[in-house]
Design a protein that fits this description.
elongated; about 375 residues; mainly alpha
């Protein structure tokens, strides 16, 4: 095994291990807070890609792909897409959803399908090894597709700034995110250079920088120990609905339209609307048959928007939101003396004692029966 092969193998192996560790760490955090879930998936995808490429390190070290090889451009587009996605959840909480992400990836999917169907079954790949050959074949269909892929990768990097300002004009982009995007842009320039002037050393440098950037984003995001992550706070303050009827319907409609222009404000407004309903209809959700669909029906918020606005406030899903309300209600009933036994947990909206005990201990770190016994002793 020559020196170049050893260097490439070690670089890819170390970067694969780094991504695998990052995936494992962030996955633990994702169990407790939804904001880490997308990062765990992204790190996992990068781990699998590097794991697949590493066994072919000899081909990478000794290869001569030429200029703008489609395989390298595919990795550039996919990498730029994945590296840009997670930042949206920082500037626009609740933005990351499967449907929206598939739609955002549709240009890549369309480009891949067109390239696969239109060219490879019917003709050979146009290989170019110099700028003069590139200029001579610039109108070749597959070269045009590769140039489109190159610009598409740059487009995904620029969207880190463009989309938040377009969808949430009041958002503030953190300083560390500005630094991350700047370094991501510089690393993209390095990769584009390698696409035009391939060398195994240049590719190793890019993979190292690429891994360092991903680890930077992971460790910048992780501020607290996983098991000490705070649960979303149940705010018992009353909210005044912004959409209450007024005498001047025209002014109200204009205010609503202006408010809904901003992604984050729309989420917050929707969340306050749900909070207001939950606080004024305790008897409804204390029925254990009350579920997500009934909450959507009662508040007039569709399922997608409800999930989006709750995630923007740190809840994993609607079930967790309802559960935390019921656990809080269970605690209040115990403290007031209205509930003296775990078998009465249906008063707080729990269908079974087992579920009530599990949710209470997971939320407060104390067994339900022990808490009831403690409060009973205090009252006596």
């Amino acid at each position: 095994m020559d020196t170049d092969n050893i260097i490439v193998t070690l670089t890819f192996a170390c970067c694969t291990m780094a991504h695998a560790i990052a995936t494992a760490v962030v996955s633990i955090y994702a169990r407790y807070k939804v904001q880490y879930l997308s990062l765990a998936w992204i790190m996992g995808v990068f781990t699998m890609i590097l794991l697949i490429i590493t066994p072919y390190s000899a081909s990478v070290a000794n290869g001569h792909p030429g200029l703008l090889h489609p395989g390298m451009l595919l990795m550039f587009v996919v990498g730029s897409y994945l590296q840009s996605i997670y930042t949206f959840g920082i500037t626009m909480p609740g933005f990351l959803q499967w449907g929206r992400m598939w739609k955002y990836a549709s240009p890549i999917i369309l480009l891949g399908l067109v390239s696969l169907i239109a060219f490879y079954p019917f003709g050979s790949l146009t290989k170019v090894y110099s700028m003069s050959e590139l200029v001579d074949n610039i109108l070749s269909p597959d070269l045009i597709m590769r140039i489109i892929a190159l610009f598409m990768g740059v487009y995904y990097v620029l969207n880190i700034f463009r989309l938040p300002h377009r969808m949430a004009y009041k958002t503030t982009i953190p300083t560390y995110l500005v630094g991350y995007c700047t370094l991501l842009g510089l690393s993209s320039v390095l990769y584009i250079y390698v696409c035009f002037n391939y060398s195994s050393d240049g590719l190793c440098w890019y993979v190292a920088v690429f891994s360092a950037l991903n680890l930077y984003l992971v460790f910048q995001t992780l501020d607290n120990m996983a098991r000490s992550l705070p649960l979303p706070h149940i705010d018992n303050n009353s909210y005044t609905l912004d959409d209450e009827e007024t005498d001047d319907e025209t002014v109200q409609n204009e205010a609503d339209a202006k408010r809904e222009e901003d992604f984050n404000e729309r989420n917050l407004h929707c969340y306050h609307r749900i909070q207001h309903w939950m606080q004024t209809h305790r008897m409804a959700w204390r029925d254990y048959t009350f579920n997500r669909d009934r909450l959507c029906e009662e508040t007039g918020v569709n399922r997608q928007l409800m999930l989006q606005c709750l995630r923007s406030q740190g809840y994993n899903n609607v079930h967790e939101y309802l559960t935390l309300y019921r656990v809080e209600e269970l605690k209040n009933l115990i403290k007031s003396g209205q509930l003296s036994s775990a078998t009465e947990c249906d008063m707080a909206g729990f269908a079974t004692v087992k579920t009530a005990r599990l949710c209470f201990e997971r939320t407060y770190g104390v067994k339900l029966d022990d808490y009831i016994a403690e409060k009973t002793r205090v009252r006596n």
